[in-house]
Amino acid sequence: xxxxxxxxxxxxxxxxxxxxxxxxxxxxxxxxxxxxxxxxxxxxxxxxxxxxxxxxxxxxxxxxxxxxxxxxxxxxxxxxxxxxxxxxxxxxxxxxxxxxxxxxxxxxxxxxxxxxxxxxxxxxxxxxxxxxxxxxxxxxxxxxxxxxxxxxxxxxxxxxxxxxxxxxxxxxxxxxxxxxxxxxxxxxxxxxxxxxxxxxxxxxxxxxxxxxxxxxxxxxxxxxxxxxxxxxxxxxxxxxxxxxxxxxxxxxxxxxxxxxxxxxxxxxxxxxxxxxxxxxxxxxxxxxxxxxxxxxxxxxxxxxxxxxxxxxxxxxxxxxxxxxxxxxxxxxxxxxxxxxxxxxxxxxxxxxxxxxxxxxxxxxxxxxxxxxxxxxxxxxxxxxxxxxxxxxxxxxxxxxxxxxxxxxxxxxxxxxxxxxx
Length: 421
Ligand code: ATP
Ligand code: MG
Hints:
This protein has 2 domains: 15-169 and 229-318, 2-Layer Sandwich (BirA Bifunctional Protein, domain 2); 328-417, Rossmann fold (3-Layer(aba) Sandwich), CATH 3.40.50. It is 41% helix and 21% strand. It is built from 17 helices and 16 strands. The chain has helices spanning 15-34, 48-55, 60-65, 84-93, 96-99, 138-154, 170-184, 193-201, 212-219, 230-245, 290-293, 308-318, 335-350, 364-374, 384-389, 407-412, 414-417; strands at 38-39, 45-47, 67-70, 76-79, 103-112, 124-133, 160-166, 251-252, 264-272, 280-286, 301-307, 328-332, 355-357, 378-382, 391-396, 402-406. Strands 1-5-6-11-10-9-7-8 form an 8-stranded mixed β-sheet. A 5-stranded mixed β-sheet has the order 13-12-14-15-16, with helices on both faces. Strand 9 and strand 10 (280-286) form a beta hairpin. Helix 1 packs antiparallel against helix 6 and helix 2 (48-55) crosses helix 4 (84-93). It binds adenosine-5'-triphosphate and magnesium ion. Adenosine-5'-triphosphate (ATP) is lined by residues 82, 113, 115, 120-122, 125, 127, 278, 280-283, 305-307, 309-310.
């Protein structure tokens, strides 16, 4: 029988990669909590309807990428393809929309989309995201963008560009949609298959196409910025003003769009020049209509999500992190000494030393060689003689210097005797 492998588009995150994940998670958590965002953990599976209503049937995600199945009682269940819909469902379910005020939430975890796997694109992938609900102020837009740029900066990432756009309000977009259709209709035959299908359902999404020819056509399309109402323009200008105040560099990209009715005003992406085709590390925007669309009270909101796999790809280029190395390596031989070594390991760990215990029972020489290779500073050696005398031999592995002390002494002041060098 053949062996079983991980599903296409899914991946084991092995220990030497997990260090990067932890770095990203710890960095993000620190910055998010200092900005008073609180973590929320919503279920990985939800009713299919949540995503159909919350993301929209005309999108790729809902149209072709969802993992949807009937459970044993025939309910339509979907593995979440993104985080916002679940968070907003929870926000409404717990009555926060009725309380008013501002809610700052963040989440992280796996998302599932049936896509064509390639570097930086998987079927199970992971995001860290945030949602700021209850404010329509341009300051809120800038706060969330600043939190995102802070996280990326703290990770040491460079060559990033912030692309910024406004898609106005519902009415602005209706006007723009008409103008866009007028421009695209005569070019219909030159568009790629997907875009032709979108032409009547959701023409704004065509601007987002990855097809080369369609992109060329899109470059000459009318700009949405010429269709913004006075209020929408004022919001957009204030966002830009505040970003400039914070010295956050951005580029305006009128073709950065989200095609759905409940998306409003600010849309943004942060891209890296070092990621090839999958260049977007963070995508977000304002969604003033979503809470209402999902049955809650009218609530203005904005959020973003970052793809952790893409961040890991960038971080690996940036700094090869060292593997884990013990501070101390304990070598022992003989029944009594082995028991003693086990107790000593426990005790020194409780004193915050990283301690590896040799479990091999091989000859001392071999164990000490392993200690050398482990990267530890000091080997603690316990043999019959030492355990007779209640002593331990310390060997500094770099210099070869040795010293024998009593176990009592060591226990009374471990950091005094175990000087890591
Ligand atoms: P893309 O254009 O790359 O498909 P998207 O617009 O579908 O991205 P969002 O839904 O905005 O992406 O998700 C936010 C972020 O999550 C993306 O910018 C990306 O970093 C990450 N992401 C999205 N889909 C995947 C995937 N299949 N595999 C890995 N990361 C992903
Ligand atoms: Mg996508």
